Structures are given as C-alpha cells and as structure tokens.
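Human: Can I borrow your eye for a moment on a structure tokenisation matter? Separate attempts, laid side by side, tell us more than any discussion would. Could you pick a protein and write out its sequence and tokenised fold? No explanation is needed for now; the record alone will do.

Assistant:
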Amino acid sequence: MFDLTGTTSTSSAPITGKGALDGIRVVEMGQLIAGPFCGQLLGDMGAEVAKLESPGVGDPMRHWGQGEIPTWWRVIARNKYSVAVDLRSEEGQQTARDLIAKADILIENFRPGTLEKWNLNPVDLMAANPGLIIVRVSGYGQTGPYASRAGFGGIGEAMGGWRAIVGEPDRAPSRMGVSIGDTLAATYGCMGALAALEARRKTGRGQIVDSTLYESVLQVMESLVPEYAINGHKRTRTGSVLPKIAPSNVYPCSDGEYLIGANQDAVFARLAQAMGQPELATDARYATHLARGEHQTELDQIVGDWTSTLKVQELEDLMIEYAVPAGRVYDAEDMMNDPHFVAREAIVRVPDAVLGEVPMQNTFPRLSDTPGSIRRPAPLEVGQDTSEILERWLAR
C-alpha cells in the first residue's frame, strides 16, 4: 500500500481502508478492455486481482493509448498482480486451474469456447471450486446463433442501437470517443459478480455471469425499443440536441462553448430573466415544454445569439446566479485544474517507476465506510508478481 501525493491540480487522501471486497480473490484471464476493466473495478473495491498474462508478450493493452509512453495500462491494470502463465501449454493450464481453485471470481473475455479449448471448462472449474463465480464477457453471449462470432466493442455498440443515434443526421454514425461498449459490458459483468457474491453468501454456490457487449449497450438505450414497438417511432441521429427538448444544447460563447439545460418551465423562466428577455417565458411559442419543443430550432438560435455575446466565465456567472443547470465542456486540462475535482479528489496521482507519477481518475463510486482505493500501481513487467502469487495462493 502506498500514499498518493496530491498537487495543486490533483489531490488525494490517505488510504484508510482495504475496500469492501477485501479478502476476495480474482483471477483475470481477459485482455484489452472488456475483461480487464471488470477486473479494475473489482480491484478498486478491494479485491486481490491476479492477472494471467502470456509470458513475454502480455496484454496488448500495455501498448495502447496516446503518447510516446502509453498510459492507459496504468489505469486499467492498477491494483493488479501480473502472473506469467502460458494457457496454451499443459503446465500453464494446470497452474491456471490451481489458481482458479483458490479464487472467488474468474474473469474472461475470450470468444466462447476458448476456455473449453484450453481444458478450462467452467463445468470442471466449478466442480473443483463450487463457490466459484465466472464472469464471461463476450460480444454476443455464451448461447444463441451468434455466440461463436468474434465480437468487438464497436460492433456491440452498433448492434445494441448506440451507433445509429450518435452523430449528425447528415453523416455516418459516430462513435462515442471512448470504448463505451467494452466498459459497459465490463461494468455489468462487475455488477453481476457482486450480485453473485451475495447469492453465494446465501447458498454457498457460485454461478456464471454472462455479460455481452450488445446487451449491455441495449440496457442503456432508454425507451428506444418500446417507442418503435408501440408508436412506430425510430430514433435517429440528432447531433447535439434531443428532439422536442429545448433549450438543451451546447451554445457558442465568444471564447468557447457552454452547455445549458433549461427545458423545464420554471428553469426556462429563470434563463429568460438571465438573458434580459423575461418576455420569452410568457410567449406562447416558448411558455410550455411542449411549445418549446415545437419551436426548438428558433429558440436555440435565440439562446445562441445571446450566449455568443458573452465569454464563458461571464455566462457561467449568470447561470449560477439564476440557478440554471449549465456547465463548461471539459477536457482533461480543465479537469486537472478544476477546484471541484480537487476538493473531491476526483483525480489522484499514482507513483510510477518510469514516469514518476501518473494522474488518473480515482475510484468510484464512493463508499462511506469501505471506500475503494488504488493500493498498488499497474505491474510494468509481464509476470513480475508470479512468484509472490504462486507462493501466497498455492504455497509453491
């Protein structure tokens, strides 16, 4: 365990607890994002995560990200131990079986059938360890006609409905900018593992958590399906606005952009006051939610014409004064210098043997009695913790 040192732009608090999952052992066999992010979440909550990596090669995630020295690995592999295991060899498969027999949770995000091919059939693993919970993250699930297909985050986003509604209406579907399909599947996998731990407390038995990319995306698609099934309405790409919800958009300022959400009647009245145009709140075209939705384009133009005469700070001061929900469109630099981020320790600096320290997001959500923490930095060498884990878990 180590102390995190804060600065004026990021801060941290001393680690005072071991986390809600202290004592839970996790074997992570996945790579890239969907499996490893699930492992990151469990590790942040206090679990001990033994990450199995191919000797010499390791997880390709070690090399992903921007810059001369990619830093994504430092985030997704924090709180983990790297154990070098060749899963394609009999010896490596036996080592994996031995570790899994001592584990509470196994995470994998290979194509369905891969574990079975490596003589790691979940049926056999759970026979040897009846309390084992296996989180299986895949593109399409462990069953169904598409189960054997190769899955990738973007494909899951497309199938789950996300890509069809993201972007400008006159252009091809856009991506989120982050690997949202992978992280959603990982998050639902983590949720499933936590639910399975509670079920095991009552029954003593483990179970399989089947988390898919496309279903995880589908879960957050709000009323997209019933809107079509009941009303025949298909959502389409609408850019930065929500149809019939106004004013709620990103508006130009003289030195940047600013997001305002004032679509409720009382809030819109306050915005009209801030604009020096209180008559807008009683104008029949804008007085109600439905009316503003019908006149969305012209209302956005009115608001945008006004915001463009102000600097971002001037607009923000007015929005705060009139209690209108609004905010800047942040980038990483904004986050690192924002006083609210600092006050809540949303970004911490993690010691790093190569880079000195790496600023990154803290652990979320926040638990009052058993908070998560970053107890150890990401392992920089493949297999650097092999001897320690084998000795502690298997007494080798």
Remarks:
- The longest strand covers residues 48-53.
- Residues 1-15 have pLDDT under 50 and may be disordered.
- DSSP finds 16 helices and eleven strands in the chain.
- The two ends are 24 Å apart (CA to CA).
